[in-house]
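Obj: model holo form, ligand = adenosine-5'-tetraphosphate.
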Amino acid sequence: MSLVFSGIQPTGAIHVGNYAGAISNWVRLQQEMDCIFCIVDYHSLTVAYEAKEMPRRVMDAALDILACGIDPERSRLFVQSHVPEHTELSWVLSCVAPMGELNRMTQFKEKSERVDWVNLGLYAYPVLQAADILLYKADVVPVGEDQVQHLEVTREIARRFNHQFGDTFPEPKPRLTKAARIMTLSDPSRKMSKSIEGSAIMLTDSEDAIRKQIKRAVTDVGPPAEPGTMSPGVANLFSLLEVFAPIEVYARFKGDYERGELRYKDIKESLTEEMLRVLSPIRERRRELAAKPGEVCRILKDSAADLRSRARVTMGEVREKLGLTACQ
Ligand code: AQP
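Output (holo structure tokens):
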């Protein structure tokens, strides 16, 4: 059976882009595959943050993910730093990771432009991500489009390790949703992102805030890049509609668009209602879970205990292959 691994950073509240591009897929995949989901707190150390805020951020991410429908009876949900083998494998993999590939990473380039000085962790981010995935020998990785380039690095690292030390790791494949890249509603040229203030609809935003953001969504930004193509703002509304609305609603608006009869006001109103319909039970579940933080911690700790034993098996094999066996 395929093994799924995916992660999310505790860098802020989860937004509808994370839901559309990744978490909605996690919820679907857990019905048919063995799934491991991770709150990647080590990754989030690569950008500035307040240490005293971290426990709350991790808890918020866990609440959001569980409220979206991740079932702890079916899937493992854990915190990356609870399984220290992630960083151990990351060092090993950094010794086979090609710097030429890492130098090309778009996310590194974009994130380094936003800071005064660049830390090594931000550069090595894809190597730690490779360790996250390969530690469990996962073969399916549901992610948004922005992570596909990083996953290619994981595949390259797996190939190089296998070539140098013998067959050990599978080459994991990305699994994208139809809405793999949701853009900022007020600026459809930029990816919706947690760390860019005001760029996202958060799962926990009030109904009023969601209504206002969708109402103000940019639809026309001059003529389309190519005649006959949808403008980026309208394409973004359709991507969101595809995730949040039943297929008939999506098809009806697509038909309107093709006949030149699409009214932006109508698609925005419909998207608002459909999004609220999906998000309101998620918000309700989140409120219930937030009242039981002990139970949420138990889920995270039980998963970590189970995964730590799997991680130790892989690290035993890796140490053996590397010859780190003296005096054992
Ligand atoms: N705009 C997006 N559209 C579709 N998918 C997205 N993802 C992120 N943004 C979008 C996917 O969500 C998963 C978790 O993302 P992450 O938190 O690990 O890191 P990220 O890609 O860096 O997400 P953000 O929101 O942009 O966070 P910050 O601002 O902290 O960097 C991933 O599968 C990602 O592809």
